[in-house]
Amino acid sequence: MSLFDLERELTQSGKKQIAAEVPELIRRKQDEIYAALAEMEGGARPGRDRQRKKAGKIAAAASAAALIAVLGSGFVSPAMAQTMKQIPVVGGIFKLADELGLRTAEEQGLVSNPEAYDEHDGTVLKIREVVFDGTLLSFSLQREGGDFHGGISDYKEVRSGGESKIVYEKGAIKDAEMFVDGVAMKSFPGAYRPDLTWEPSADDDAVLFHVFNNSNGSVPNSTHLPDEFSLTLKITLEGFKDPFVITLPVHKQADRVTVTSGEQKTWNGLSMTVKELEFSPVSTILRLEVHADHEWTDAEKGNLLFEVVGSNGEKGNQIGGKGIYPDRKTVAFDIVLDRFKEAPESVTIKPFMPVFTNPDATFGGYALDENGEIRKHFMQELNLTVPVDRSRIDQLYRLQ
Q: Are 127 and 118 in contact (CB under 8 A)?
């Protein structure tokens, strides 16, 4: 279908459905795009090239809003649907991410757009956006082309005879392997290598990758991401014989403020020490250590969690993290959080144990409150508040 035919069908479909009610999900997507339009118009800066690019973004966003409205109407022909699958999300995946840090990175110009890709049998995998603040590396991976019925992250669990297995949709990611300067990350001990994870995005054909840097590069056999390196990603898709291999340069794009602590609390056989907090425009990293007067049980290892709250009451949105056990009585936690909306004057760490659906259980389903959130048994005696220099963090957050 040509662009002319697409425009004609959009017009005709729109006329048929001009009085139809737009579904709530579609309306929310429209609102996101219209908000982006207002932001782009309000933030215009001089410069012919910048104005030309901004005009193109506004036109693309307006077109996408129209496309979304027609999609919600239900009057989309197969040919039109196939054409629309080739149209990328407006403003990139970061723009519509749930993480404030990724949206901020794009707004502040911290994102690089390498357009690095690999192609197999008419299907392209492309890395569209990358941001690295020295501790958290994030990038989006877009799937283009191909005849797929499911999203790039779609799978289902199939149970048979008391056993279960994962079945992936054709074109979905089965495995991802990362190399730094040609060295495979999985060749290093699990506790001492960067963690690679991915999750669905606002676009069914795209995913968000996060790589959390190992905090201690001095540990033997550990791997610590340098400020600049060559990243190679090897992606295996269901239905493809050979993996997709994408290589691109990565460099640190954001400054950080590190707050060294040492605050400590002891209660009921547990001693918690905050080592440091790191702030960037993209992420917040909390490093702490918990020592017990006994060897940790499996139940204790998996169920000690933390809520992190800024002085203004804002709860930290946890993205990931890890726990390393240097000995049987000690756990070193590295917790990765989204950036705070506003720079805090202090950060309070609240350890808790989750409440299970079965009160006597130590694993299984979590009990939920009226808001659908996990019920928590807080250990208030271990709460720790760490003061921070708000002015330095505020300057970091407001960098333009």
A: no
- Angle (CA) 208-323-314 rounded to 5° is 60
Helix (H) and strand (E) counts in the chain? 7, 21
Residue 334: DSSP 8-state: E
Measured distance CA(206)–CA(325) in Å, rounded = 35
pLDDT at 108 over 50: yes
Give dist(CA 137, CA 133) in Å, integer: 7
> What would the two tokens of residue 214 be?
């190992």
Q: How far apart are CA 92 and CA 111, in angstroms?
A: 11
Provide the terminal-to-terminal Cα distance of the chain, rounded to the nearest Å: 41
Tens digit of each residue's pLDDT (9 = 90 or more) over 26-51 = 444 444 443 443 333 333 333 333 33
Copy the structure tokens of residue 244: 């997709």
Half-sphere exposure (Cβ direction) of 343: Cα atoms closer than 13 Å:
19
Closest CA to 133 of 250, 280, 335, 248: 280
pTM recorded for the entire structure: 0.74
Question: Tell me: the pLDDT tens digits for 52-96?
Answer: 333 333 333 433 444 334 334 344 444 444 444 444 444 589 998
Report how far residue 92's alpha carbon sits from residue 137's, in angstroms, rounded to the nearest whole number.
17
For residue 160, the tally of other CB atoms under 10 A from its CB is 7
Tokens representing 10 are 């959009």
Q: Which residue has the higher pLDDT, 236 or 224?
A: 236
For β-strands 163-168 and 173-180, DSSP reports them as unpaired
Length of the chain measured in residues:
400
Structure tokens at 13: 């479909």
CB atoms < 10 A from the CB of 273, how many?
A: 17
C-beta of residue 205 within 8 angstroms of C-beta of residue 142: yes
Average pLDDT value for the chain? 79
Angle between the N-to-C axes of helices 3-16 and 48-73, in degrees from 0 to 180, rounded to the nearest 10: 50
Residues 361, 367: Cα–Cα separation, whole Å:
11
Structure tokens at 164: 């279960």
